[in-house]
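Sanity check

After download, print the first record. It should look like this:
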Amino acid sequence: MTDGPHDGPHDGPHDEAHGGALGARLNWLRAAVLGANDGVVSTAGLVVGVAGATGSRDTLLTAGLAGLLAGSMSMAVGEYVSVSTQRDSQKAALAVERRELREQPEEELDELTVLLMSRGLSQKVAREAAQQLTERDALRAHARVELGIDPDQLANPWHAAGASFLAFTVGALLPLLAIVLPPASMRLYVTVGSVLTALALTGWWSARLGAAAAGPAVLRNLGGGALAMAVTYGAGSLLGAAGV
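Expected structure tokens:
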């Protein structure tokens, strides 16, 4: 069979590119789920705490909207800063690689050959693959094989910030609507029930994305959310009873 030597140089970078793209999509999806989960927990804790102190719908709405906006903006700004730093690092690494390819092409070809050999190719096949990849696009070959970067798909801080803002907002809307829409006698039960249901779903989905057991993730999510609401409701009730 001729599959090994023939397909090695072709499938390696090809599979890596597809694997990298899939991994990036999964990371974005996981971040969206976790962002929505943060929105649910933080806003639920806030509005349930306020509900422990007062039954005013206007106060609950104001507090919930303030928490939603503050949380979503904080998430967006934090993600923008983080991904901007990542993008700057990627661009700097590509600039170094571009300079090295210009100043010492033979050494870079040897380096690419060694990297391909470390992935299981024989020296002869690795050398041929390195030469072909270099002739096609030397920077892209080194970026993918050596740095694990796709020059055409650098991290976008604006996309990250927008996704975080949207995910947090969607998650935060659930407890906010649950606390202000039902009658006063039902709002706490509706909020707790809907929040725990949402946390069970996000826990299950995040475990699915990570190929992990769903049970522990769901229980952690439920336990954390329930604890947050219990603590803030208790604090709000004490403050309300004290007339603060």
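If your output differs, re-run the checksum step. Summary of this record's structure: Confidence is low (pLDDT under 50) at residues 1-20.
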